[in-house]
Input
Amino acid sequence: MHGPAQAGWLLVALCAATGAYCLLRMRSRIEEQRRTAGGEALMGFGMAVMAVPAAVLSPPRWAWFAYAVVFGAAALRALWAARTSRHHLHHLIGAFAMIYMSLAMTTTPTAHTGHGSSGAPALTGALLVYFAAYVLHSGVRLAPARTAPAPTGPPAVPLGWADRPELALACRLSMGMGMLAMLLTL
Output
């Protein structure tokens, strides 16, 4: 990622922390959490590596192709999993965005600061719109709802850190914001 170094390091920290929490979610008692956590951990760590400021680490051209291959495999897995879960369509779009950014970096990996006078390509714009809508939708879902009456009956089993749906949603929100930031610097 090319842009201000401080913003790059903050994005690296955010994405790495998100990836680490997603690894923790792989230990969840809830099957759906485990199913999605691996792909989200890969996305978080992949975004963290890609967001390292170019002044610190400018990978060789072949590394960007390697990123594209890894996220291509993730896209195929998400495509297969999308048969049973709509959320995996988001993973597919995220993997596609990572492939797109990786391939864009192969053209000018050390001086890729924008798209020149012609403006952003339509695909970048479409991805920006998608991730902006995803971030807004996730943010609204994360906002507290009206309080419901207290449930009656036996107390619920407390959820572990890996099973907290609001934390998983916060991670998805942070990765969506990270993807927006990375697409904006493309």
In short: The helical segments are 5-25, 31-50, 61-81, 87-107, 122-142, 165-185. The two ends are 7 Å apart (CA to CA).
